[in-house]
């Protein structure tokens, strides 16, 4: 058995999947696909730990300067893409193809194998969260934009997590993280997948790099609204430890889940899936989740974050 199969994080994941499958049998196909995908991501993360990729070549002063302007640390930084990460792309295409995406995922795998898509560029553009470039390239090649975006996001997430961990482990940045009072991630600009309420604190958990940070006040993660039309609801009153925050100003919602500890990368995806009833509760009230934050007004993406063909 590989080291992942016996690792603590994998055992935790297996136990959670078994529990969720018992409680919500309908989720079983989704859980099976997630198990295969997270195994690939954990192997990739493990390999990155072994290879110890270069830290983000950016000084803390530069990051702090960005944070003052509302610019996340990774924005417009050039990263080296480890070759081991490129190998996860065909594996993810295969998992998604078998898990229901079928030919749409196989075609992306074929385009990678034929080098019509450059794996390194795809990972670089995904890491840069340049959704527009990914979608344009995918459409140009007759591939599913949503699926190319998803595969690139999954495959680049172990690197984003690795670099985020290294960055926020710096003493000066760890200290100044509390000055980041915005709803999008201080490292990668993604919105939180959910908020984990741990011991009275409210940790926003990045959906991409798994960073944790807090807002200084209770308000809408997306637009900052704290008025009367920002409300907290528990769709299932018998389970008040799981809530949704609904914002009447921007029409968006955030899930809040009480937890004993912060969920480690990449297991946040499990909690996200296990709380799909909260998403449904919000969506039946016609609330949604916004697209990626548009930072072009603060700092446009440079050409290094361009296309993937
Ligand atoms: Zn992030
Ligand atoms: Zn809002």
Structure explained in plain terms:
The protein has 13 helices and 6 strands. By secondary structure, it is of the alpha+beta class. The protein folds into 2 domains: 3-174, no CATH class; 179-284, FdhE-like fold. Strands 3-2-1-6-5-4 form a 6-stranded mixed sheet, covered by helices on one side. 48% of the residues lie in helices and 10% in strands. A hairpin with a 5-residue loop joins strand 2 (201-206) and strand 3. Helix 3 (28-51) packs antiparallel against helix 6. The protein has helices at 3-6, 8-23, 28-51, 60-69, 83-86, 88-101, 103-113, 119-127, 131-140, 145-168, 171-176, 268-274, 276-284; strands spanning 192-198, 201-206, 212-213, 230-233, 242-247, 253-258. Bound molecules: zinc ion (2 copies). One zinc ion binds next to loops.
The gist of it:
The chain has 309 residues and is α+β, with helices and mostly antiparallel strands. Helices cover 48% and strands 10% of the residues.
Produce the secondary structure layout.
Elements: H1 3-6, H2 8-23, H3 28-51, H4 60-69, H5 83-86, H6 88-101, H7 103-113, H8 119-127, H9 131-140, H10 145-168, H11 171-176, E1 192-198, E2 201-206, E3 212-213, E4 230-233, E5 242-247, E6 253-258, H12 268-274, H13 276-284
Parallel strand pairs: 1-6
Antiparallel strand pairs: 1-2, 2-3, 4-5, 5-6
The chain binds zinc ion (ZN) (2 copies).
The site of one zinc ion has 8 residues, from loops.
What is the SS-derived class? alpha+beta
Q: Number of helix segments?
A: 13
Query: How widely separated are the two ends?
Result: 37 Å
- DSSP strand tally: 6
Radius of gyration: 19 Å
Note the main sheet: 6 strands, mixed
Helix content: 40-55%
The low-pLDDT segments are none
Quickly count the domains: 2
Ligand roster? zinc ion
In quaternary terms, these chains amount to: single chain
Gross geometry: globular
SSE topology string? HHHHHHHHHHHEEEEEEHH
pLDDT averaged over residues: 94
Strand residue percentage: 5-15%
Strands ordered across the widest β-sheet: 3-2-1-6-5-4
């Amino acid at each position: 058995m590989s080291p992942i199969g016996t690792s603590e994080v994998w055992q935790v994941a297996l136990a959670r999947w078994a529990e969720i499958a018992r409680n919500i049998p309908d989720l079983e196909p989704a859980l099976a696909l997630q198990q295969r995908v997270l195994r690939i991501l954990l192997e990739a993360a493990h390999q990155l730990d072994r290879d110890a990729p270069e830290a983000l070549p950016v000084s803390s002063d530069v990051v702090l300067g960005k944070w003052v302007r509302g610019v996340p640390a990774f924005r417009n930084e050039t990263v080296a893409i480890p070759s081991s990460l490129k190998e996860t792309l065909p594996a993810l295409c295969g998992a998604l193809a078998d898990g229901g995406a079928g030919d749409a995922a196989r075609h992306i795998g074929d385009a990678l194998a034929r080098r019509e898509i450059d794996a390194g560029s795809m990972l670089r553009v995904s890491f840069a969260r340049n959704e527009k470039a990914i979608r344009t390239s995918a459409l140009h090649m007759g591939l599913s934009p949503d699926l190319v975006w998803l595969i690139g996001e999954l495959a680049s997430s172990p690197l984003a997590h690795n670099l985020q961990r290294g960055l926020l482990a710096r003493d000066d940045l760890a200290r100044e993280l509390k000055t980041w009072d915005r709803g999008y991630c201080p490292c990668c600009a993604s919105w939180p997948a959910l908020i984990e309420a741990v011991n009275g604190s409210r940790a926003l958990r990045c959906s991409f790099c798994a960073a944790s940070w807090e807002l200084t006040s209770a308000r809408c993660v997306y637009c900052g609204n704290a008025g009367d039309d920002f409300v907290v609801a528990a769709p299932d009153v018998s389970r008040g430890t799981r809530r949704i925050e609904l914002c009447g100003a921007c029409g968006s919602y955030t899930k809040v889940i009480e937890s004993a500890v912060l969920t480690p990368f990449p297991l946040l995806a499990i909690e996200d899936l296990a709380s799909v009833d909260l998403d449904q509760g919000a969506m039946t009230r016609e609330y949604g989740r916004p697209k990626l934050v548009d930072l072009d007004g603060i700092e446009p993406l440079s050409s290094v974050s361009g296309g993937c063909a």
